[in-house]
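Class, discuss our next protein.
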Amino acid sequence: MRKPLAVIALAALGIGSGIAAAATPAPPDAYLYIGWPNNGQVVSSGKPIRVWFGLRNMGVAPKGVKFPNTGHHHLLIDTDAPGPGVAIPSDRQHLHFGTGETETTIELPPGKHTLQLVMGDDQHMTFEPSVQSKKITITVK
């Protein structure tokens, strides 16, 4: 019996077979942080919030560019970071910066919000060990 092409393709990728793809290794001393805003910061609603990203002991490159110890930023809003070797979703809570950006502006509704950065490899997969900032909380008033 012939297997459908989709089943063969998924098996080749290790999807559905219980085999996980190997995560891209990260330098053990990589340090990712949010430079602004600060944890506990109160910001005004109705205007964009500037967020800048800091990274040490690792490089930044656009998606699709594969160099050792290099990746690109993802900003997580009001959600938890995925574990190592996981594809980072692309939605309103997982913002991708695949051209190598190191800052952005965002707009958030009034209230408390969490922000966290996660580095992704050339294919938006988290590293092993995961390279992520501390989660900060800001208040929009």
